[in-house]
Amino acid sequence: MTVSVVRFGGSNCDRDAVRALESVGADAQLVWHEDGLPEDTTGVVLPGGFSYGDYLRAGAMAAQSPILDDVREAAGDGVPVLGVCNGAQIGCEAGLTPGAFTTNASARFQCERVHLRVENADTPWTAAYDEGDVIELPIAHGEGRFEVAEPAYDDLVESDRVLFRYCDADGDVTDDANPNGSRGAVAGVLGERETVAVMMPHPERATLPELGLTDGRGVLGAFA
């Protein structure tokens, strides 16, 4: 599988994503957003960072890049697409998944490790886990609070499209364990296809043993 990691002006997790993907056995390539998706693309990562300096809203300007037309077409064809952090914001802004990510409830940038509970283990992104498993990943964001209107949120829950929720080390979903105030403590969701997902925590920063965390390998294993 050749995974295209899309680089925008302001991306800063693109090379991290390439190395992490290679560590789980995937072929990965950096793709400048103005060049479009290569024909050999069989997977897409929208990486973290601060595309266009987060002007207007985080991810809003990058979502207007023509390459997102390619990404939407690929997603419609069943190509795995994962948006991480700023990539999750871009994915929501581009309509790949419902909802939006907005300013943290704390109104400050937060960089820390968090626990996530696997809500749906029957997806490519969570196949390495069991439902209810607790994993640990880093976050680094100022606009990570997931918001979505009531009917859409109910639909996400009823259709089992919530991938992860923030929780404590025991797997309990509590206000204290929700680092940014996300609705329902949601940390990751699926699009209309299970092959499309966005998440705010960084699996690519939890793949190499020398970094102290490896729980992200299971997520990126969807590309291997």
UniProtKB/TrEMBL annotation:
Top-level taxonomic group: Archaea
Catalytic activity: N(2)-formyl-N(1)-(5-phospho-beta-D-ribosyl)glycinamide + L-glutamine + ATP + H2O = 2-formamido-N(1)-(5-O-phospho-beta-D-ribosyl)acetamidine + L-glutamate + ADP + phosphate + H(+); L-glutamine + H2O = L-glutamate + NH4(+)
One of the GO biological process terms: 'de novo' IMP biosynthetic process
SUPFAM superfamilies attached to this UniProt entry: Class I glutamine amidotransferase-like
Presence of the UniProt keyword ATP-binding in the record: yes
Keyword Lipid biosynthesis found: no
Pathway the protein acts in: Purine metabolism; IMP biosynthesis via de novo pathway; 5-amino-1-(5-phospho-D-ribosyl)imidazole from N(2)-formyl-N(1)-(5-phospho-D-ribosyl)glycinamide: step 1/2
Entries under InterPro entries matching the protein: Class_I_gatase-like, PRibForGlyAmidine_synth_PurQ
Keywords for this protein: ATP-binding, Cytoplasm, Glutamine amidotransferase, Hydrolase, Ligase, Nucleotide-binding, Purine biosynthesis
Enzyme Commission number(s) of this protein: 6.3.5.3, 3.5.1.2
Gene Ontology MF terms in the entry: ATP binding; glutaminase activity; phosphoribosylformylglycinamidine synthase activity
Active site per UniProt: 85, 202, 204
Localization terms from the record: Cytoplasm
CDD domains: GATase1_FGAR_AT
Cellular component terms (Gene Ontology): cytoplasm
NCBIfam families linked: FGAM_synth_I, PRK03619.1
Subunit structure: Part of the FGAM synthase complex composed of 1 PurL, 1 PurQ and 2 PurS subunits.
Function, as annotated: Part of the phosphoribosylformylglycinamidine synthase complex involved in the purines biosynthetic pathway. Catalyzes the ATP-dependent conversion of formylglycinamide ribonucleotide (FGAR) and glutamine to yield formylglycinamidine ribonucleotide (FGAM) and glutamate. The FGAM synthase complex is composed of three subunits. PurQ produces an ammonia molecule by converting glutamine to glutamate. PurL transfers the ammonia molecule to FGAR to form FGAM in an ATP-dependent manner.
PANTHER family per UniProt: PHOSPHORIBOSYLFORMYLGLYCINAMIDINE SYNTHASE SUBUNIT PURQ
Protein name: Phosphoribosylformylglycinamidine synthase subunit PurQ
Annotated organism of origin: Halobacterium litoreum
Lineage, opening ranks: Archaea, Methanobacteriati, Methanobacteriota, Stenosarchaea group, Halobacteria
Gene: purQ
